[in-house]
Amino acid sequence: MGKGKIYMLPTPIGDTPVWDVLPQYNRTVIDRLEYFIVENTRSARRFLSRAVISSGTAASDDSTANSRNLPRTAWANGSAMMREYYDHEWGLSVISEAGLPGVADPGADLAALAHLHGVEVVPLVGPSSILLALMASGLNGQSFAFNGYLPVKQPERGRAIRHFEKRAQTERQSQIFIETPYRNLKLFEDFLKECNGNTLLTVAADILQPDQLIRTAQIRDWKAKTPDVH
């Protein structure tokens, strides 16, 4: 591998054993890396510990030389950081809290900065809850949109749900959303209230875990049974 690379390093979802989910090639890469840019220090340490990385390198806070915390805002010192690590033989690795760096994740900012500075961005294989849910849903996988979080408060949320429902119907396009766990049930209830009875809704929670739930049904059928998604 050449110099000036940034590896987008996936992590497992939940407590799934690391090497049950990630390919062994990822381990080869991680073993040779010394520098990690992390979204969450605690999560990164836990991931590296579970992965039993032979190099012994661990992510820590900004006070150390071998890590940087990944901010959710613009990179104030991004250009200097790129210059600092550009010539390192193995480059850098980006670690998010869960899933794929850069997908619904602030790691996208760093990838954009890398391209700006001519640094090669190398994506590694790993799980995405967004795509895993779509794969198992039975909904349209040829045309879909990830819309992130819906508005929290009404009436904005109701308008957004009706807008995306109309888009799903007129364009036959699957609409994908995520939510904070403690707001899952309220979001589910709002879908039941705002959507037509024949609209298909997939609920996906705890993906790849022993108590995984992925179920698709019409809104009218969901009204008869509330899922345990709190």
What does this structure look like?
It is a single chain. This protein has 230 residues and is an alpha/beta fold. Helices cover 36% and strands 17% of the residues. It contains 9 helices and 9 strands. It has a 5-stranded parallel β-sheet with strand order 3-2-4-1-5, with helices on both faces. Strands 6-7 form a two-stranded parallel sheet. A hairpin with a 7-residue loop joins strand 8 and strand 9. It is elongated, with a radius of gyration of 20 Å. 25% of the residues are buried.
List the helices and strands and how they pair.
Elements: E1 5-9, H1 18-21, H2 24-32, E2 35-38, H3 41-51, E3 67-69, H4 78-85, E4 92-95, H5 107-116, E5 120-123, H6 129-137, E6 144-146, H7 156-171, E7 174-176, H8 184-194, E8 200-205, E9 213-218, H9 219-222
Parallel strand pairs: 1-4, 1-5, 2-3, 2-4, 6-7
Antiparallel strand pairs: 8-9
Features:
230 residues; single chain; two-stranded parallel ribbon; alpha/beta; elongated; 9 strands
Query: Number of DSSP strands?
Result: 9
Instruction: Give the distance, in angstroms, between the N- and C-terminal Cα atoms.
Output: 45 Å
Tell me the number of helical segments per DSSP (H or I, 4 or more residues long).
9
* Succession of helices and strands: EHHEHEHEHEHEHEHEEH
Q: Structural class from helices and strands?
A: alpha/beta
Biggest sheet, spatial arrangement of strands: 3-2-4-1-5
Instruction: Please state the average pLDDT score.
Output: 85
Strand % is: 15-25%
Largest sheet: number of strands, sense, barrel closure: 5 strands, parallel
Outline: elongated
Residue runs with pLDDT of under 50 for 5 or more positions: 55-68, 70-76
**Overall radius of gyration:** 20 Å
Approximate helicity band: 25-40%
